[in-house]
Structures are given as C-alpha cells and as structure tokens.
Amino acid sequence: MKNIILGVTGSVAAYKAAYIASILTKRGYNVDVIMTKSAMEFVTPLTFQSLTKNKVYWNMFEEITPKEIKHISLAKKADLCLIAPASANVIGKIATGIADDMLTTVVMAMNQVPIFICPAMNTNMYNNPIVQRNIRTLSELGYRFIDPKEAVLACGDLGKGALADVETIVNSVETYFK
Asked: What Pfam families would the database entry show (predicted)?
C-alpha cells in the first residue's frame, strides 16, 4: 500500500480535497491529511478523518512524543506528497524554506519524495510575479505542479486559478505510481 500525504491549505477549494482523499482511500492508498489552520476555516479535520480513517494532523507541537517526532515519521513514511489546494502562502513558504506549521515542516523533512502542488487562488494572485517566481523556483527544484484551470472563481472573476479537476489530480498521482 502506498502512503500519501495530502496537504490541505486555506482556499475555498479545500472542500475538493475531501473528494481527493475519498477517491484515493477507496482506491487503496493510505492517506494522511495535514491541514493548515486556515484550511480548517473551510473544512473540518473530522471530514478527512471520516473519509481516510486516519488521524488528521495540523499542530506539530501536539505530535511530539518520546518515541516519535511526528513530522519526521510522516515525512519518512510518505511515498508521495500532494498539496491540494495549495495557497499562495504555502507555495511561498516552501519556496523560501519556511517551516512554521505541520505541513511545511513535513515537506522540509522529505527526502526524495515526489511533491505535487496544485495551486488554487484568485487569478491576480496566481499571476502575481512573486507567486510565479516561487512556482518557477520550486519547479527547478523538482517539485511537480498540476496547473489550475480557468473558471469563474469564488470571487466572481473569470481566469486561471481554480483548482484542477479532482480526476486530473487523482490521475496524476496514479500515473506517477504506474
């Protein structure tokens, strides 16, 4: 069984991560979900726990025990990391090496683990030169991006920034494992 870390960040598209978690779990993957605090404003950890049958992680300080440092053990256990949706904030943190929450700390602790990032944000945010620089930086370092699609966004704008289709994301993960 392959182990997938699903990082969920603060985006209105966070509810779609529940579908991703459900599909991957039903297809036989072990899915450990790590949520940012802002993601929990959109979807609750209980949703993901119910779908994956695994504890949901968000507080890296809660997880330190004498036997295990959870952000390290999760990073070592992972066969793949999928961040969907990925906010501009998290993309920027990873691109600059900031590890100040459970998700970014696990990502920084990963070694030779493929990391797929699925941006989801307003078109202006996505097209911002700083965000684009961060995406280029991560791409050059081997991070894989599943590009957002053009759609009418939650704010009403039409443009590129909507989370890629759930099936596109799931198929990218499954294609990697084939």
From this structure: Flavoprotein
